[in-house]
Amino acid sequence: MAMEFREKDLDLQNIIADEVNKYLKRDLGTMSATKRAPQELIDKYEKMSVPQKGRDIYEIMNELDNEILEYIHRNNHPRSFSFIPGPGSRLSWLGDILTTANNIHASNFKNATLPISIERNLINYFAEKLGYKIKPAGGVFVSGGSMANLTAVVTARDEKIATKELYKGTVYISDQVHHSLSKAFHIAGIPKENVRRIPVDREFKMNVDELSAVIKKDIEADMKPVMVVGTAGTTNTGTVDDIEGITAVCEAHDLWLHIDGAYGLSHLLSTKGRDLFPGIEHADSVSWDAHKLLFQTYSCAMVIVKDKQHLLNSFSEQAEYLDDIQSDDDVIDPEMIGMELTRPARAVKLWITLQVLGEEQFRERIDYGQHLAEYTEECVEEMENWQVISRPSLSILSFKYVQPNLNETENNKILSNAAGRMASSGYAVTYTTELNGQKVIRMCTINPETTKEDITGTLARLDEFVKDELESL
Question: Which residues are recorded as modified (N6-(pyridoxal phosphate)lysine) (predicted)?
Answer without folding.
Answer: 292
